[in-house]
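Record 1 of the preview.
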Amino acid sequence: MPTIRAQKPVRKIFVGGYTKSGTTFIGRAFGLFNGVYARGELDYFRLFYDGMGKLVQGYNNNIAVVNKEVYDGFGSLEPVTIPSYRALHDKMFKHLFFAGKPVPKDCTTIVEKSPHNVYWYPKIRNLFPEALNLAVYRPPEHVFRSLMRHMTDHRHKNFADPNFEQRKQTLQGFAELWPKYIGVLEKNRPDLRVIQYNTAAKDNEALVHFLGEKILGGSPGLKAPIESLSKESYLKSLPEEARAKSLVQTGPHKIKLTDQEIRFLKKNCPAPKISFDF
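->
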């Protein structure tokens, strides 16, 4: 009989960060490499982790009763163990990531970027112990401005006005959530790789070199040029009607923060007390 060779393990990298911190850009950078498949935002752990855990626990409880009562204590139904639980998640995650299609033969690494991943690091490590967790950091002033751009274009045009009541409420909520986010980065720093978005955006070539050598462990070569990471290249890849609405812009900032908002952000939204990998 011919020998069946097992497929090489596919490495997983999970990218997280505050919403509008640059996770999409980092995901696109990973996607330049041969054998690396990058996608977002599945938000897999927020949507599936707790639900799957409850289902498995319910199943285990049920077969314990069946083994005892239906088969008089001699039933042989096996409970879901930790290894099989992880295997179930692995299959479901890959199924969703590749939309039901087989994992490509050249795939060596899967990169899933969802901002919420930053809050799920302990559970990611529980499910996929060999996975690498990466966080993207961007200063709060830049994040909030980008968030207001998104809200203006996709929720209500009045978010461009600093006096709009919902913008004021969003700023207050942002200031409450930001310290919690910083606490997550500081607490999980020993198990994280952390990239500063502003540094990465200024030098795309250095970023790609860092990802290839330090994260992927030796550059596997590129399937697209580094220049394709530029804002101009990205905008050209979009349908013409989508370009004006894109958060990626090459002109002046559409959203202006007031001096009062900037002072508020500086006072209430500290930078993390951590080192950065890039």
